[in-house]
Amino acid sequence: MRFALSQLRKLPMPHSFYEEIDLSNELDGFEDIISSSLCKVTTTIKERGIDTYLCDFDISIDLVVEDSITLEAIDYKVEVKSSELFSNSEEDAYPIDGFTLDTKDAIVTTILSNKPMSISNSTFESDVDDSEDEEDNINPAFASLKDLL
């Protein structure tokens, strides 16, 4: 959502709104994301000073991502809450571009940081025999230490 600063100054704070955003173009450049649904976002904007706003996001989006081993499609849901600061003067904040506060970059960044780096539905059989007792695997150099416990 884009807000002109003059528009934000007129709104009663905190101001909440709901929107559904198509982020398919923004998420298209990531090779493990095959497709995405509309992103559902509830945002609450709070004023934190002159041209400084805190946005609390409640984000929900369904992604279809590639299996990191088989490259098959896997459905993955991202549901996350996030708080981001927008300002003209604060260093650790999303910049307000000119006279417009745009929340889209913060929402995309939150989605990308909350999706897994890799995901797989593949299962593998273990070659390790788990039937051995743990005591049988104790290094002889440390065997006398077990009596101390």
Explain this structure:
With 149 residues, this protein is mainly beta. The protein has one domain. Helices cover 14% and strands 40% of the residues. The chain is built from 3 helices and 8 strands. It has helices at 5-10, 24-27, 104-114, and strands at 2-4, 15-21, 33-36, 39-49, 52-66, 73-87, 94-95, 100-102. The strands form 2 sheets. Strands 2, 3, 4, 5, 6 and 7 form a 6-stranded mixed sheet that branches. β5 (52-66) and β6 form a beta hairpin. The longest helix is centred in the last third of the chain and has 11 residues, at 104-114. It is flat, with a radius of gyration of 24 Å.
Notable traits:
149 residues; mainly beta; two-stranded antiparallel sheet; 14% helix; flat
Number of strands: 8
**Strand residue percentage:** 35-45%
Number of helices: 3
Cα separation of the termini: 60 Å
String of helices and strands: EHEHEEEEEEH
Amount of helix:
10-25%
Low-confidence stretches: none
Integer count of domains:
1
Kindly name the structural category. Answer: mainly beta
- Overall mean pLDDT score? 85
Main pleated sheet: 6 strands, mixed
Radius of gyration, taken over Cα atoms and rounded to an integer in Å: 24 Å
Name the overall outline: flat
